[in-house]
What does this fold into?
Amino acid sequence: MSVSMTPSIAYGCINLLSIVVQQELSSQQLMLLKFGPVSSVEVIDHAASLKWISMGPGGIVTISERGKQCLNLPHVESQLRFLLREYFLCRRDPWLQLASRGRSHVLLQSPPEIQQLFHEAGLAGGVDLETIDFWDELAALLRGEKDKRHAEIGRLGENLTMLFEKNRTGLNARWMALESNHYGYDVLSHVSNGDQNPLKIEVKCSMASISTAKFHLTRFEWQTAVHSNSYKFHIWATSKHSIRLAALTVAEVAAHIPIDQNGGSWETVEVPYDLFEFQDIPVELALGLTSPIP
It folds into this structure.
């Protein structure tokens, strides 16, 4: 792709698919098509680089299975999301590394034309699971399978906390970890329905048994906790058959935090799950998830 993706090129690629599927065209005939403010060469170049079109028998342009998959999506937003995934897989631009830090970092640092595409694809806001999956897949481009699995379980815990807090307070919480991993907590909720002061929540989740599971806490997370007016830890133990939660105060976790000694300072501490009491959470809570607990 000699030219970076722009909204006009993106819409041109999708339009090209719809044209080619309706009529047989040669590569020469493709060049005569009009795509608004961008040239046919730019659109064809991008569609070919995405492996959406290719030259078939007799010089007729054909659509690949991936191209058909995009074209068959129900609305333009979904098609744009599909296109962006394909484009990022082809390009792997350096700024994509910011995806591991959170959505807001990408939106601030990506090229303006890509930022516009994020907005038009409905990816710049919202916390629906399709949007979350997109951003997690983007971050996964730079992760191994083990890290990807760890991230999926972490998102599961965060999602459960979002649902739990909505049920507890009747108010919508904010999914801060989706925007950035630099806040020192994952979800911003409210103390209660009657007290709408902010409650910061750090979320940990494991699918191991409580007797063997551990969670890791960073110094930054702990310092954020002790300097916040209202802060809780949600420690989730999940499986296909049960959901259990330890909702812990800072004081309850403090006894298991190391003390700096001899001029040194700790950076990460590992805390066993079985130090705390867990409560059973009705499995109905998970009905808010669009995907079952893995």
In short: The mean pLDDT is 89. The CA atoms of residues 84 and 245 lie 37 Å apart.
